[in-house]
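Would you kindly consider the sequence and fold I have copied below?
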Amino acid sequence: MRIKRSVTRVFALSVLPAVSCAVVAYFGYYAIWGERGLLALSDTKASLGVAQQQLADARGKRLRLEHRIALMRSDDPDLVEELARSRLMIGGPGQVAVSRAAH
């Protein structure tokens, strides 16, 4: 009888620490290897860097386009001639038109 009480008491006293250790281990595992853990942070930072680079490229293209639109609105004769030559592939007398990739 006395041994049974002793075993029951030891078991009862060890349940709370065991459950606490299990909870800490569970949350600790997911804090490091989980979907939003520390290891996923480096992947997220890498994808953020790629997205920021794409945003910078898109902003640069937009600024170039806005500049060309502003030149078109001001009736810049050089731009009008450049557009006419690139679209129509014609040149002046004695000139040869060679197509090239757009910049």
In short: The chain has three helices and no strands. The first helix runs from residue 2 to 33. The chain has a mean pLDDT of 84. The helical segments are 2-33, 38-73, 77-88.
